[in-house]
Amino acid sequence: LSRFKVADTLISGGSMQTAQELKASLPANVVILPSDKDAYDNFRQVKNAAISHRPAVIVRPQSIKHVQDAIKWASMSRRSISIKAGGHSNTGFSVVDDSLLLDLAPLNDIKLNDESTIEVGAGCVWKDVYSALSSRNLIVSGGNDCSVGVAGLTLGGGYSAFAPMYGLALDQVVEFQMVDYRGEVIRASENENNDLFWAHRGAGHGSFGCVTKIIFKVSKLKYPKFYRCKIEYPVSELANLLKEYEEFHAKDVTDEKSGTIFVDIRAQTIVLDLVFLGNPNTDYKAEFQRFLSIPSANVVFEKFETPLEYALNNTKPDVEVAQRPHGASTKRGGFVKQIDQDAIQCLTKFITSAQRYLSPIPSSSDANAFIYIDYWHGKLGKVDKKATAFYHRRKRFAQIILGSWASRASEELAIQTWVTDSFHQLSHQADMFGGHPNTPTSGMTDWFRFYWKSNYPRLREIKSKYDPEELFRHPHSVRPVPPPQPELPAGEEEEAPPSRFQISKL
What we know:
alpha+beta, seven-stranded antiparallel sheet, 23% strand
């Protein structure tokens, strides 16, 4: 068949279909075009007002058949595809300019199967999963925040306070359902298309096809009730806290315990968020005694009856600002092996420099800058780094530098500059050796090594098998292996062929 694109009109073997005709062929409100103004601007947006990408067509499928029809149209129209589920892509990689955007939010069915597995539509958020499981004392280890999309978090990793005991979200998947570049439904599990199953667990963000459903195994909560201790310190105690934090994870940490350090730059405070999932008959306060000995401003102990209750009470301040109208944010992050003296000096320098960068921002503004530090350990580290595409399995500290602001251009410039400069210093001074796709960093040239290390060559081979024409593409998607080029006689040069799909700003 002869295929070419003329002004959004498909010509194939004598038949043609425009985007308007695609819209007319599907139910109302499934296909949204730029001419649909308010709906178009609403559904192209991610939860970050700093990002404003403009897809050519938006499809909000109400069934798998709609996904198939949209993908077939995109393939015949030579139109690349981007995929949005929960909309939490901070960099906006889930919405690509000039692409066909699949907004999967309507695919939010959920089904619990005999307390052994749960089937989750790609449009679900973690609140949907926790709500279905909490009353039965069951869990799938997913997001700390209820509003995060299930599909995006799982395909990129899925760390939370539950991960040390129950594993990453991707480690609990037993099957993916996906529509490929031909519009065909295929399944990936240990027993079927197991190479694709391997790749989706850690590198599946819109790289190989459109995942429409994920089946997770569920676990019985070992202890239904669990506890959190939040301790607030003045920022002057950062060095002492980081030393205790490093020693705690070297000597005292268990799978039942996890802790996150959260530094609020403008408030000049540190919050240590400690979670205990162990036996409620244990003196859980004693488990964190070393941190209570550091001079603090405030200590709060909380008890949660279910994972849902915990996740509903766990929205971070930067997320709250970013999710307000016109709220925006940016972040960078990666892994370091230890918090040694060099790392402490580096973090202290970030905080000092932030005050200089942020000083022009009015005190009444919500704009702010933050640093997160998590320690990844426990069950996730018991999986070999080659068992899934997710490479970074060994014990390590995850550090994220981020900022949020409202709509003032001066605030955006100040915070973007501080975050970018701080990440550059961290990556060079603190021995940052990698990251993961759930914390993507715009502008990186070697992102594939940063995320996947030696797993990337295999990922490219799988990409070539399941999406050889690179229909599914965004700035950090897996690239296929280039086809072999015939040798040319000496002195002759071949002109590079045009790109098969229209992709801009990648």
